[in-house]
Specification:
The complex is a heterodimer. Chain A has two helices and two strands. Chain A is an alpha+beta fold. Classes of the chains: A alpha+beta, B alpha/beta. Chains A and B meet through strand 1, strand 2 and helix 2 of A and strand 7, strand 10, strand 16, strand 17 and helix 10 of B.
Amino acid sequence: MGAKKKSVALLAAADLGLDGPVGAAGAKTELLDIAAPPVRGKGQVVVAEDGPAGAKLIFDFLKAKKLI
Amino acid sequence: MRNVITFVEHKAGKTRKVTFELATEARRLADALGGKAQAVVLGEGASALAEQLKGYPLDLIGVSDDPEVDRFLLDPAIDYLEAVAKGAGPSVVLVPNTLQGRDVAGRLAARLGAGLTSDVTDIKVEGGRVGCVSPKLGGSTITTCAFKDAEYGVVTVRPNSFTAQAGGGGAEVVSLEKPGGKAYLMVVESDVEESSGELGLEEAPVVISGGRGLGGPEPFSTLLGPLAQALGGTVGASRAAADAGWVPYSLQIGQTGKTVSPPLYIAVGISGAIQHKVGMRSAGTIVAVNKDGAAPIADFADLLVVGDAFQIIPELTKLIREAQAVHA
Ligand SMILES: Cc1cc2nc3c(=O)[nH]c(=O)nc-3n(C[C@H](O)[C@H](O)[C@H](O)COP(=O)(O)OP(=O)(O)OC[C@H]3O[C@@H](n4cnc5c(N)ncnc54)[C@H](O)[C@@H]3O)c2cc1C
């Protein structure tokens, strides 16, 4: 692994001519909160007898949700 | 930050729904911050679009039909926006989280020394502070970030996150002065449009996606197409379908494709792998049609109908068409 033998130069912010705050202190935004997304619960699983019955299940479901 | 400025993305005066979502949200935010809501419309067709925007609750609409905005790549638009923002004073700038919007947002933030939050799905104002909610890591984590020590904040907003609501009106339309002393180098030589169906994927109110279960390219147009049309939506796909060459990659939804959050997502013949899920889990309602009741999608679909898509989908399209005919 050639990469292992390479020397890594360590520079301070000042070496780069940066005089303002850097890193989190220099960021223009700050993290207020970090959370898991709302869980999508398991919904209904319904077995359709045939095509028209399956279609009717979806149609009624969408209608009840006012999506059609 | 008091004022809210929204950048209107359009082509020759034709815009997308997200424009009106942002105009509506700009009003709500401006009221919460005690400032003004203003839109900026630039380039060919801007004046006509400004008229349309008058139907939304804005205070000001800054307009310029300057042809240089379309002739040169982005820079003129950034100059206009920078001038508007500096004129308005400390403000939040809303930009759609689109290809162009993201480009605009980064450059504008650099110009203004602004904070930048991206792919934002909700904005909260508390004690005068603006907190931006965005899904990260494919939606597996939700962060809220606030602007600090900055006069300006730039926010790219995910389409379909806010509801557009016309009303209010009475916005004053003002002609924007051309920022002086600028020379532009990058000329737009040609501009290729995605085909219309693809253009709307991220914004469509309904996405009907097909997967490997469809078995080939034809059902995307013969089975899903008519349903999408009946519901006023558009067709998407899983990676398996795109990898098989059944549809272009621009239709792919998921980790390595597009992220969509339509009010209604219908997955047809898609198993619901995690890499697909991350692209659509923020949809309002998820309906799936799958032969296999134990497919992973059963765990997060609001309704899974177990059956053959080829039997069910045409009947569903018929039912919807019939219902529409009754109401027409
Ligand atoms: C790094 C990486 C990135 C990835 N990125 C993405 C991505 O962005 N988007 C994405 O989608 N995937 C992505 N994948 C692939 C993902 O893991 C799955 O392989 C893929 O989503 C499966 O697609 P599918 O659901 O169409 O196919 P399958 O998993 O094969 O599912 C097909 C489903 O169709 C059902 N079916 C079959 N016939 C019928 C019928 N007649 N009627 C009804 N149902 C039927 C079957 O029961 C099955 O559940 C990625 C994978 C990796 C490793």
